[in-house]
């Protein structure tokens, strides 16, 4: 592995989520997943004549990357005797092994009686993932890999349910990669695109900055599980120097997905394939061509220069235009594809039901499942009860024909009809979801236990943070979720998650300590008083200690009524809490008499005033009486 020059591509989710929650943000935050992938490809010859068991290992993982996969790809098909011993997945074609995949970097193969050599390629892929907020454009910079000699590809993924779609892709040299004329000048497969994904082989196209333009709208939302039907194909001839256009017919209950367009030609003369396919989003998926000479034992029949070519396109949209710029006819095969949502998400997986009526008019039909990064598809059980697992690409005999099943980490496609053969019933996909974790901490970094978290969206989920401040929410359906976190009668956080990422949501809570010091009239402590705080939705009571104090911890920001109750004496105050505070509350208690209880200074003053008044009233009549008696005598 050669030297790698890495630039830090970081997304500080903590700061984003904190700002989001404080603002009470309800607009979904959507992200694009960007995977930078480094690939090594090493040809090997496996000698089972000298070893009955061979173990193969990936190359060392470069800093900043993780191992995505280590794959042993056989030239053609492996001998039937070979048995994978240590692996994660295999690919098979009609019962024969074609590749073995490991996610840990080690593959072990047993000879099982085979005594010979096998040619294979060891392909190791390393991945570095970053997340970029979705806006009008996404910029992908591959400049760091220039002159490293590495094989570098970039994959961009957008959630199906996000209201965004790929509009165009411009390479570092200003070329529009979705343009048919540009695609004709780069290797087929070096650029791949659909409305939600882009793959770029930067080693083949060039290093630098790529710009992906996005378009936004509710109409660009797609289901995460759907049934795709491919209508019976149309074969036609495109005459020289002409064009033909095709539009998808209306199909009740179905939405247009696009076309598979296969163009081909066999003709005398030098190789030339000047054709153009135009549509909403065009991807040249496959290309093969050859120029050859037909010659016999002598020149009795002079040699004939011939060529053939074939090109296959995926066209997304409801119409396609094919232009033949050649001087001879070409042949075209056109297959329209439609889709409709299917399936029910359950804690045990996705259950999809297919009936013959659903696919009656189709030549081929597939169930397609595409899940977020926090989910992994592990298996599918077909209606007949067979559980398909541990495979990646699986083609086998089926009914009176064959079918293909592809099970990747985050997406799957299962063929349910091929020609006249169809298997109706329930298809159950087992999907493992990583839980979403909300980590609540106060301003000092301490965990906040007891936060009540609710998520609403495709599912309704509730959880409470534990002693570690972590609330774990078990999501099992893709989509947009609104999160509300309440604690002690107040809302700590309110935000909407658009993209379900494999990350923790770290939420800094505005909760504070409130110290209440209960004082008597002389400023001394009042021990044993009951202090209650109340914000209208939550109340808590504590008893003062020997210093007359209580400390309420982790109270949410807000206005509180603070009540100090000591026997028959009640004192109330209002506090606007916006940080750690300490307040003194004067209860007015002057002394506490046995059998009588606390007496406030106000009461003492009132008693003194009453006593003075009584005395004055008592003595004043007697003086008047005495004076009267003196006057009589």
TrEMBL record:
<protein>
    <submittedName>
        <fullName>Carboxypeptidase regulatory-like domain-containing protein</fullName>
    </submittedName>
</protein>
<dbReference type="GO" id="GO:0004180">
    <property type="term" value="F:carboxypeptidase activity"/>
</dbReference>
<dbReference type="InterPro" id="IPR008969">
    <property type="entry name" value="CarboxyPept-like_regulatory"/>
</dbReference>
<dbReference type="InterPro" id="IPR013784">
    <property type="entry name" value="Carb-bd-like_fold"/>
</dbReference>
<dbReference type="GO" id="GO:0030246">
    <property type="term" value="F:carbohydrate binding"/>
</dbReference>
<dbReference type="InterPro" id="IPR013783">
    <property type="entry name" value="Ig-like_fold"/>
</dbReference>
<keyword id="KW-0121">Carboxypeptidase</keyword>
<dbReference type="Pfam" id="PF13620">
    <property type="entry name" value="CarboxypepD_reg"/>
</dbReference>
<keyword id="KW-0378">Hydrolase</keyword>
<keyword id="KW-0645">Protease</keyword>
